[in-house]
């Protein structure tokens, strides 16, 4: 049995339709379809090189797709209306669509010459036109929420990896995104620092009307956190379902062998 229930969702907040991405001869995403419901928490799992990060990068429009369509809230991100049909999106159109999405990467990507507060306040000033004072008030509140009220004036080098990653989460949230993307956000951390970051993510899931997509190798967390697990193999989602379905009773041979190896 392959690919049970490509769950169709009414008015999804994110829709990938036949999305294909190639690097030279390599097809990294292969006509991929995926609908994500508002406020849904989705974990993307699968072997290294199967296309999980590429999917998130395409949603952030970090690069163009080769075929297909990506929509956010019913608005095509990759294409826009023109000449009676959809044409390739302009940079401005992409920027506007992307502004609803926040992303946190494996390697924090903080500005080293800015304090935690300045890092988290920078986006709202630069991209949303908030005053420095308004942006810093928003940033301070978010840093408090991720447990860093006493670190506002610290530079990244003065913070642990877990603290830096929490600054990165606060920085993404400062843009008030509807959708948050997390790409292996704990894999650069020592095991004892993963918990504090996962706790922040867990609370975000509870407190906010946020749709979340997370690439993770931590199956225990995926199981507890996600409404839906999507298993990737070679640029396709070969199996998806609830954590109970995918972890408890995987159908596809590749899911079974992957889970045997990692759990
Ligand atoms: P995953 O996140 O599942 O480990 P990725 O999405 O990072 O996988 O990568 C999927 C495939 O695409 C890999 O084979 C990777 O080497 C390739 N790839 C990713 N980015 C590039 C790029 N910029 N140029 C060429 N190949 C790439
Ligand atoms: Mg990856």
UniProtKB/TrEMBL annotation:
The keyword ATP-binding applies. GO terms for cellular component: plasma membrane. The keyword Transport applies. Pfam families: ABC_tran. It comes from the Bacteria. Residues 14-259 form the ABC transporter domain. SUPFAM superfamilies: P-loop containing nucleoside triphosphate hydrolases (SSF52540). InterPro entries: AAA+_ATPase (IPR003593), ABC_ATPase_HisP-typ (IPR030679), ABC_transporter-like_ATP-bd (IPR003439), ABC_transporter-like_CS (IPR017871), Ectoine_EhuA (IPR014343), MetN_ABC_transporter-like (IPR050086), P-loop_NTPase (IPR027417). One of its GO terms (molecular function) is ABC-type amino acid transporter activity. It is a peripheral membrane protein. It is found in: Cell membrane. Keywords: Amino-acid transport, ATP-binding, Cell membrane, Membrane, Nucleotide-binding, Transport. PANTHER family: AMINO ACID IMPORT ATP-BINDING PROTEIN (PTHR43166), GLUTAMATE_ASPARTATE IMPORT ATP-BINDING PROTEIN GLTL (PTHR43166:SF9). Belongs to the ABC transporter superfamily. This is Putative amino-acid ABC transporter ATP-binding protein y4tH. The lineage of its organism: Bacteria, Pseudomonadati, Pseudomonadota, Betaproteobacteria, Burkholderiales.
């Amino acid at each position: 049995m392959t690919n049970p229930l490509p769950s169709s969702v009414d008015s999804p907040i994110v829709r990938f339709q036949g999305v294909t991405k190639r690097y030279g001869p390599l097809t990294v995403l292969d006509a991929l379809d995926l609908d994500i419901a508002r406020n849904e928490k989705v974990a993307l799992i699968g072997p290294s090189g199967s296309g999980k990060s590429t999917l998130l990068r395409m949603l952030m429009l970090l690069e163009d797709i080769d075929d297909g369509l990506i929509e956010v809230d019913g608005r095509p991100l990759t294409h826009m209306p023109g000449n009676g049909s959809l044409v390739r999106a302009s940079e401005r159109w992409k920027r506007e669509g992307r502004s609803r999405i926040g992303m946190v990467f494996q390697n924090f990507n903080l500005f080293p010459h800015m304090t935690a507060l300045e890092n988290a306040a920078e986006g709202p000033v630069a991209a949303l036109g908030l005053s420095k004072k308004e942006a810093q008030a928003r940033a301070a509140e978010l840093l408090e929420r991720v447990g860093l009220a006493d670190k506002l004036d610290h530079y990244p080098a003065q913070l642990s990896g877990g603290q830096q990653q929490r600054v990165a989460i606060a920085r993404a949230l400062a843009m008030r995104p509807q959708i948050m993307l997390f790409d292996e956000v704990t894999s650069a951390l020592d095991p004892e620092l993963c918990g504090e970051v996962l706790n922040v993510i867990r609370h975000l899931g509870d407190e906010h009307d946020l749709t979340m997509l997370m690439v993770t190798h931590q199956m225990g967390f995926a199981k507890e956190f996600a409404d839906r697990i999507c298993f990737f193999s070679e640029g396709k989602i070969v199996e998806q379902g609830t954590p109970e379905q995918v972890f408890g009773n995987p159908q596809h041979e590749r899911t079974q062998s992957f889970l045997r190896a990692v759990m």
